Amino acid sequence: MRKILVFLMLAMVGLALAFYINYQVQSGDTLYGISKGFGIPIPVILDWNPDISPSSLKVGQKLKIPFVPGIMYKPVRTLTLSTLAKIFFVDPEEILEVNPAIGNSVRAGKEVFVPLGKVNTSFTQLVDYIWPVYGSISSEFGWRIHPIYNKTMFHSGLDIKADNGSPVFAARSGVVKFAGWKSGYGNVIIIDHGNGIETYYAHLSKINVFVGLRVEKGDFIGRVGSTGTSTGPHLHFEVRVSSEPRDPVAYLPRNNTYVMRRVLSE
Ligand SMILES: [Zn+2]
């Protein structure tokens, strides 16, 4: 009996390790080169290796590189496979394909490997913008009573409630203009889409891009958090045109809005 248990535990450790390899940085390596060579997007590599500096890889440094684009995710509540798939904007089959041991539900606190959706799927090609995160709208754009300052203030974006650590995706293709800390916003990414259009992704727990990086619509860029002025994990998402905040709902696909709102009752 004990032998079987030890074997099972080893098998589980094996499974957990099987999602990535250790790669030792060689002289002349760049993050771009490694990303291209392994076919793993830079934000995914940065998520697996939070301590590396993108501009100065050190020879001999060990990097964790997943076999397929995907990240480790630790749900804060027990999720069905179908909800997990929605959070990653993939089909449950895509998760099962690379992680057959995942089962029909993932319990809270259990870290699992989840693949990231293929960019430019038929859905993302059809629309100009995609929803940056899967969750329910907790605060709309416009004038509101601020939840912390308790006075009427203009809310320059849309708040989408999502669990801590949930993946955040670029709503549109562009170039990262800012990635770091801003007062109020906490950890924030700003993507420049050209023609004066920018999108903001605020209160992140993790930023996996850097200034100058080109991202495509649907690319994983960071993780939901509650940094800055925030009452709980959510994504504060903004669309700005010539620096003026606009209502993001007007830009995001409506059919998905329905899906997003329905999640509330799940
Ligand atoms: Zn907000």
Molecular structure report:
By secondary structure, this protein is an alpha+beta fold. It folds into 3 domains: 2-66, LysM domain (Membrane-bound Lytic Murein Transglycosylase D, Chain A, Roll); 70-118, Membrane-bound Lytic Murein Transglycosylase D, Chain A (Roll); 125-265, Glucose Permease (Domain IIA) (Distorted Sandwich). Helices cover 22% and strands 32% of the residues. The chain is built from 7 helices and 19 strands. It has helices at residues 2-17, 31-38, 42-48, 81-87, 92-98, 122-126, 254-262, and strands spanning 20-24, 62-66, 70-73, 79-80, 105-106, 112-115, 136-139, 142-145, 152-155, 158-161, 167-169, 174-182, 186-192, 197-204, 206-207, 214-215, 220-223, 234-241, 244-246. Strands 7, 10, 12, 13, 14, 16, 18 and 19 form an 8-stranded antiparallel β-sheet that branches. Strands 11-17-15 form a 3-stranded antiparallel β-sheet, with helices on one face. Strands 1-2 form a two-stranded antiparallel ribbon. The N and C termini lie far apart (40 Å). The relative contact order is 0.14. Residues 257-266 have low confidence and may be disordered. It binds zinc ion (ZN).
Please describe the structure with a list of short key phrases separated by commas or semicolons.
single chain, 266 residues, alpha+beta, Membrane-bound Lytic Murein Transglycosylase D, Chain A, Glucose Permease (Domain IIA), 3 domains, eight-stranded antiparallel β-sheet, three-stranded antiparallel β-sheet, 7 helices, 19 strands, 22% helix, binds zinc ion
